[in-house]
Amino acid sequence: RDRFAPSPTGQLHIGGARTALYNWLLARKEGGVMVLRIEDTDRERSTPENVEQILDALRWLELDWDEGPISQAERAERHKERLEQLLAADKAYYSLATSETVKAQKQQSNLGYRGESAPAGAEGAAIRLRVPDGITVVHDEIRGDVSFDNTVQDDPVIARADGSVLYNFAVAVDDGDMGITHVIRGDDHLSNTPKQLLVMEALGEAPPRYAHLPLLHGPDGKKLSKRHGAASVQELREAGYLPAAVRNYLALLGWGTQDDTTIMGTEELVERFDIADVGRASAIFDEQKLRWLNGRFMREMDLDSYTEAVARHLGREPDERLRAACAIAQEKAQTLEEVWPLIGFLFEEPDTDERAWKKVMKDGALPLLSDALEALRGAERFEPAELESSLGRVLAEHDVKPGKLYQPIRVAITGTSVSPGIFESLAVLGKDRSLQRIERALHRLSAETGKQTPP
RNA sequence: GGCCCCGUCGUCCAAUGGCUAGGACAUCAGGUUUUCAACCUGGGAACGCGGGUUCAAUUCCCGCCGGGGCUACCA
Known about the structure:
Helix content: 40-55%
Strand order of the largest sheet: 2-1-8-9
Structural class: alpha/beta
């Protein structure tokens, strides 16, 4: 039902994703279906692989569209037909003018180029549309009416000398034939719109409704690109963001509710979104806010979905062990990418972060750790509550702050000073492996402090 | 150069012809805490500039400045 044209680079630009989302939300709201137009399909930068990548990114975002790609070749007959129609009605003409001629003429008058008609089929003749005098008004759902003076508009080339048609002609014909009702796209197409409108007018076709979205910029105010960090949906996926969070964030980038609601599920977005409420100013993509939003979505997931999402991101099986690990890490991570550093120690022997070791394993750590080992050895049930009371007693005996005891244990079993809760970590790691790692740390510690190896 | 679009805290989004311009992210201070997060409390922070209309303008009009887009026999 709607239509958008992503840049065919293989990566789905975040701006393109937002355009797609707005199209999709509108289609969902009005019971229609989104139609994607991916231009330039038979050129180098838009190989079948690149197109597939874009579709894949859209699938990840959980947006759906009307199936069935139609190639330019399949449309060629129809385009030719419409071209003939315009030629016959003298609304278009063969033109020998080159871009130099056009430029030269414009230098003098500053008005739109109007060419001379060449004989049909003349060598090297392109086809131009005759632009009538008057004003072409784009009724934009977001910007209101935007007027363009036809007299400064060149007669646009609508077909090359070899007979192939140009974008502004092709979309006008296709939109009409496909019954496209809404065209939602980037601002950069606003000045193309009068050309398309002129073609439709000449064809006697009723125009769709238009909405032009402001462009997205990077933190420096320049057009969003790779050097600003993540600039594509694929990069967002790799960085461990959730589709629902990305949808929520993207929806808010250019649009907001009157009551300042920030967190919204997809159904709520569909219900509340209105294309007419979209802002007119360009927005800057801010990954920090996305991170925050993503964290909120991560924490609100139920454990099964969470485990599944983590498993998919890690390429592991969502087994019991991973589930247990997720249970203790869910509160901590903002993105899926951050989960593994928190739970990796449960699956493999951790490398010791030397800075953390140095910071934590200093004077006094040895006797504490050694007593902790004994306490843990004596623990009947290796569960958080019991571990807390056993270690609590060690704490009381030594009369030190909790951190003095827990940080060395943490470094001993996880290799780092940042981890899920210490009791939960010990419990999930299990008694054998916990004791083993603490023993190993004690050996190293005593060797370093030059004291005796504890029993 | 020509045509077009845009201009509210650092960022995103609201509101309003008139009381202290609101929320979120970020930031700062404090609290909580076994680390890191999370969480709680509080603070600072914006209507680009100049005219005009009006009793009153951030809001309406004009100019300027600033940012962006288009200006192909590309899409």
